[in-house]
Model the fold of this input.
Amino acid sequence: MALTRSDDRPWHRYALAIRNGAIPACAAMKKTVERYFSEIVRDDVYLDEDEAARVLHFCKFITHHKGELAGQPFKVEDWEAFILVNALCMKWRDTGFNKYREIFVFVPRKNGKTFLASTFANYLLIADKGQHDIFTYAKTAGQARLAFDGCKQQIQQSKALQKRAKVFVHYVDSPASKSRLKPVSSNTGGNEGLGGSSICDELHTHPDGEMFSVMQLAMAARRRAWHFIITTAGTSTVSFCKQYYDQCKQSHSETLFSAIYELDDPSEIDDPTQWIKANPNLGVSVFADEIAASMETARLIPSQWAEFQTKRFNRFTSGEQEFISAADWAACHIPAECTPIERQPVYVGIDLSAASDITSIYVVQTTGAVGEVRVWGYNFLPRAALERGKKNAGIYAEWVREGHLTIAGERTIDYEHIERKIYELAEHYDLQSVSFDPWNCNQTLTRLESNGIPVEKVRQGFISLSAPTKALQVAVIQQKVIHGNDPILNWAIGNVCLATDAAANIKPDKQKSENKIDPVAALLNAYRTWSLEAEQGQIDEAWSVAI
Done:
């Protein structure tokens, strides 16, 4: 029987509590809740309350199998109901298929995330209508078995579930539905033909997106399938997990549901009233006094402090020297000031890929205020970079669909696209210079020069890049760099690892950075030339004449 009254619908009760401020929530979670309210009044979408009742009824047969709650019945908290019901019960009205196919749950340790993932998997295996092939996956077989073993233990602790599932060493079967649950990993082999739903526990342990892409394709083979990803933050700000997290926060996909639990600002670490933003199970499986005690110890040791922030408050941390903080960069997104002005002076920087990855063009234009610039850019990619199995292929494909990335060439970058964009910029703006690393781009440089484009060679060493790198850092902190929230540049900013020499010079290090920083390299090339001319007073004079 369907649950009808709001007070009897824990998922709705939770959403109302966040909306009215009874439960403190981060900006990302508030956004998810408002999306829920907009979904339930759509004509083409409906929330299947009969199925919601089945989901919550199924949970009554589950028993905790470890920790302080071992042996006790699983009580679904309102926040867990909100996730499960949205993921499983929000449907397209015309087909009845699940609306959400990709579920991202970002929550710290001790909030019961693995247990929640196991519950989701077992519901598909045992209680959902139809046949399912379900995979728990990870980079290694051992990691893949962690979530799988959680599913097995749930079943073994419940007499009701034991009647409906047969547990074996390497898989679990549901005879009634002919569904099967099994673990897979990249070293298992034979993963190309997979088809069905998948569970990823601890995405932050994945060194790359290889298995993630495989399981996305596996889901695509079924009309009714889910990709359920649950993880804490990691200790790397350049990981695949951080990349995917950023994508989820920026995405407007109809088929992606995200529940992100985090603090809005690092200062909230010192405010216990805000801890529930990152810890939805506060007071149930994680406790404020425990957090406070461990925080006091962790603060004394830098390495432990970074780990504490990651595990307790879901902050991505890194031992590497930070380039630009996410908060400082976000503060520079000023929509009213980020629109370029034609016919005004601009400085262009290019980072040409050697063959098969992103080529970036970024533009710096003074706003007219002293020391203040707006920046924007263009990014290009050969079609081959979207092929299955290629690093970042999934994210690149989405950026192509959204218009942030332009296909330029098939197997390699066609530099004619790049040159045309430069000529286009020269037509619309007062082009002062095009700055780039001369390595591997002599032909492009020569063609641009022969067509009257002013070029500036920028060697990618400490001497050339240290000053503009430091200057850009300071300018961002002072909010003198205005950007349009370009997702590719945002991503690249977060990917940067810095190298330091004996003289304390710094520069972005492509080898040390675990993912692409090409847009940052292009931006620095432009910013270097702009800043050199700004020191000489040439830019302010050119602007005043132009206006």
In short: The radius of gyration is 26 Å. Confidence is low (pLDDT under 50) at residues 1-5, 538-547. The chain has two domains: 6-266, 326-546.
